[in-house]
Specification:
Residues 43-172 form the Nudix hydrolase domain. This protein is α+β, with helices and mostly antiparallel strands. The protein is 20% helix and 40% strand. The protein folds into two domains: 7-44, no CATH class; 48-181, Nucleoside Triphosphate Pyrophosphohydrolase (Alpha-Beta Complex), CATH 3.90.79. Helix 2 (152-161) packs across helix 3 (167-181).
Length: 187
């Protein structure tokens, strides 16, 4: 098996350039594999979960939410930040209930994705949720979400046309399609 040593960069010095309430931006000086020095700026993120909620009739539970950095409403799967020390599955259960009011009786880990590898260490753990039961929404203060349902085929069409561009939702839709077709199995 080969080693990746010829590709690795090594930190020389650096640290936090901005320490926000949610994100930390780092600026480091690094030595490249050829010995040259350069700077790397990147965001440290605590990680998040995304839930692929499938109702008993096969419809998918989705959200519409305004996302400030892009100044538009996005269609996306329920998701949320992992609190420090929080179990990832427990976070998924909490986020599903808070944002949609639904709880689930069946949970499956799907995969981990890294959605912005060039400038962030953020990762999202995707979970499939089935056996959904409706309940009361418990949104965080300042959080505004509209829930709705769609068929998987509708969701895939929205991905195809660009109406859905959120990466976790695009990847989640492809996973659901592969699972439905029997092409992929959950571990």
């Amino acid at each position: 098996m080969s080693t990746d040593a010829h590709l690795k960069e090594e930190k020389v010095d650096g640290g936090i350039a901005y320490d926000g309430g949610f994100l930390k931006i780092h600026k480091d000086r690094v030595r490249l594999p050829n010995g040259a020095l350069t700077n790397r700026e990147y965001i440290r993120h605590p990680g998040a979960v995304a839930i692929l909620p499938v109702l008993d009739d096969g419809r998918i539970l989705l959200e519409r939410q305004f996302r400030y950095p892009n100044a538009q409403v996005f269609i996306e799967f329920p998701a949320g930040k992992i609190d420090e020390g929080e179990d990832h599955l427990e976070c998924a259960k909490r986020e599903l209930e808070e944002e949609t009011g639904y709880t689930a009786t069946e949970w499956h880990f799907v995969t981990t994705i890294h959605n912005a590898i060039a400038y962030s260490d953020e990762h999202l753990d995707l979970y499939l949720a089935r056996g959904l039961k409706a309940g009361d929404v418990k949104l965080d203060e300042g959080e505004f979400v509209e829930c709705f349902t769609a068929t998987l085929d509708e969701l895939l069409e929205w991905v195809r046309t660009g109406e859905v561009s959120d990466v976790k939702t695009v990847i989640g839709a492809f996973w659901l399609d592969k699972l439905r077709r029997g092409d992929w199995k959950l571990n």
